[in-house]
Design a protein that fits this description.
Belongs to the sigma-70 factor family. ECF subfamily. Keywords: Sigma factor, Transcription, Transcription regulation. Residues 130-181 form the RNA polymerase sigma factor 70 region 4 type domain. This is Sigma-70 family RNA polymerase sigma factor. By secondary structure, the chain is mainly alpha-helical. The chain has 2 domains: 1-112, Rna Polymerase Sigma Factor, Chain: A (Orthogonal Bundle); 129-189, Arc Repressor Mutant, subunit A (Orthogonal Bundle). It has 9 helices and no strands. It has helices spanning 5-20, 24-46, 49-66, 77-94, 118-126, 130-136, 140-150, 156-163, 167-187. Helix 2 packs antiparallel against helix 3 and helix 2 packs across helix 4 (77-94).
């Protein structure tokens, strides 16, 4: 019998707490339950298996070093880790660590494949529509920018260029939108 979404989340939160306390076996448990999803995020952005594997390794190294920074009140474990994965993949594109044959950062849009999108994976894993409820309460511009950045894997520069606005404006929309999203989630609306 498959564990329910809340059981899986509870186990993952417990493993994160154990890892923050220095329990090495917790990292293996976290890896087994999240690596497929996080690899998919990295692969969609980097479009290269070896690069995605390297980015994924960076995610777990960072997790090992920063597990104590995870706050279950602020985000689910999979959402927190998915953000790590997205940021590591985009960082690799920005600093040019990508091998020959991979696409440049400006072409890092998600590729069509048969696997569910990261957004779908997160929704299925969490069985919790609260974040989407709060996102839907945002104004259209910040909501669209946040969805593009965090669910579609696009960089702020790509989104700003597509919308024909300055990069600073895009960053402001996202920052203010995330602040409102955080407030909504904290209020439990």
């Amino acid at each position: 019998m498959m564990p329910s979404g809340s059981d899986a989340r509870d186990r993952l939160e417990a493993a994160m707490a154990r890892l923050a306390g220095g329990d090495r076996s917790a990292l293996e448990e976290i890896y087994r339950s999240t690596s497929a999803k996080l690899f998919g995020i990295c692969l969609r952005i980097l479009k290269d298996e070896k690069e995605a594997e390297d980015a994924l390794q960076d995610v777990y190294i960072s997790l090992w070093r920063r597990a104590d920074r995870y706050d279950a009140e602020r985000a689910s474990p999979i959402s927190w880790l998915a953000t790590f994965a997205r940021n590591r993949a985009v960082d690799r594109l920005r600093v040019g660590k990508v091998r020959q044959g991979s696409v440049p950062a400006e072409h890092a849009a998600p590729i069509a494949d048969e696997a569910p999108l990261a957004e779908s994976l997160l929704i299925d894993a969490e069985h919790d529509a609260r974040i989407h409820h709060c996102l839907d309460r945002l104004d259209e511009k910040p909501r669209s920018a946040i969805r593009s950045a965090f669910f579609d894997g696009r960089t702020y520069a790509q989104i700003a260029e597509a919308d024909g606005i300055p990069l600073g404006t895009m960053k402001s929309w996202v920052r203010r939108g995330l602040q409102k999203l955080k407030a909504c989630l904290e209020r439990g609306e």
